[in-house]
Write a structure and sequence with these properties.
The chain has 514 residues and is of the alpha/beta class. The chain contains 15 helices and 13 strands. Bound molecules: calcium ion (CA). Calcium ion binds next to loops.
Amino acid sequence: MSDRSGDVAEPRPSIRAKIASQTPAEEAVPSELLYPVSYRFPLAFAALIVAALPSFGQRPCESVKSMSVPGLTINSTTSIPAGSFTLPSVGNRNATVEVPDFCRVAGVIAPEIKFELWMPAQWNRKFLTVGNGGLAGSISYAPMVAPLRQGYATSSTDTGHEGNGNDGSWALGHFERVVDFAHRAIHSLAETDKVILEAFYGNAPGRSYFSGCSAGGEQAMQEAQRYPRDFDGIIAGDPANNWVHHYIGGHLWVALAMTGDGYIPASKVPLIADAVNSACDALDGIKDGVLNDPRRCHFDPAALACKQGDAATCLTSAQVEAVKKLWTGLRSADGDQLYPPLLPGGEAGPGGWTNWVSGTGPGKSGHGNLGIPFLKFVIFENPDWDYRTFKFDAPQGLDNDVDFADAKVGAMFNGMNPDLTAFKANGGKLIHYHGWSDPDITPINSVNYYESVVKAMSRGGNHGLRDTREFYRLFMVPGMQHCGGGPGTASFRWRRWTSGWIMAWRRIRLSRRT
Ligand SMILES: [Ca+2]
């Protein structure tokens, strides 16, 4: 297989971030939990590519089409020969990759959850479902390629609607699509895949895995919490599992900070990035452009304030206040932190603030392009809703819009339940990672969630961390932006991730033997 074709399986490039400040609750996490993934998963494990095992009882690919399962429609079954294969177009991407012989199944789970399942002729008896990004709406073809080449049967769904990932209009008048997107699509796919796999191979998969980042990280958490028997191993990257508060306290909060005079053009992002590095890069003992623990950085953007007026080399007072908002985060009228802030570090570069915070104008950034359509179409169900009218406070006796959103879809979307005992009891293993320089989803949320699980596992005793680590590990990645990229991850390519996954899976396998 060529290295180039393998690049399509690299984690979604992306975003940027920043923000800072105090997060005292996280200090309790032992530093050993916060090692960068690259330290834990050395390149040597790239050699652990799983050897394909001969499979028996395999039926002709075409036979899958005649399967009769309630709610399942198989639209096509195609035997794909080893060689070059052009991935179906998603957006304007249309890559050609090298693949082994496999049976390609495309179908629909009622009412309209489209999916594909790829089953290699030489199967390693394992199965991997890959997750989605943004507001989904398309099958994640590219991440299916690397597992397929390693002998995994692999699948992906469009999550029950069609859209470009920044579109929310599919939700209008279709509450069933909202439920499918929130959690039902992945669960239904997992169940369906297992039925097809057993029928095709004559054997059920020996192990089942899920891997996703961003919205896919949210899917991962939903699976571990809500459907603990679907997967043996789950990898949750930069998860949006505090979904509703992320969309309000993350996406909307940043979009609102970037309105009016507070708007920071992309041309000023390097100014902020350089100042943060000057103030905080060396705090970890190494001047390398990476903040190993950005919680220790307390850079005050007022240091960049213009002496008067505006200039390219300074921030106006309104821009200073906007940066402070990003690094302080959303609090309730009582002062409670409703959602943690972004952290400083990693603002520069294509995966940093230029895309996520500045964008092409107010409301047209990575944050605005995700948050506004979700709030408009899912929360308020009003195509004419103006994001600048969101009510953080409300007249006495009425709900504010935060409470309204929580009440409406919080139970459906949020994957913050710290009780993972059912997943653990089923033998499940959860690998969770998050970039410390993620400018989209604050890494603090991941630390907070991990701590909540440790607390739940302790049941008032002292062994919560020990008992948690038996099945759930958190890896914080210095300098990594949203699911990839950033100053700390220049060589952090998919092969290293893949080797990490295999290492993780190997651990899962080994731990099950003991
Ligand atoms: Ca450093």
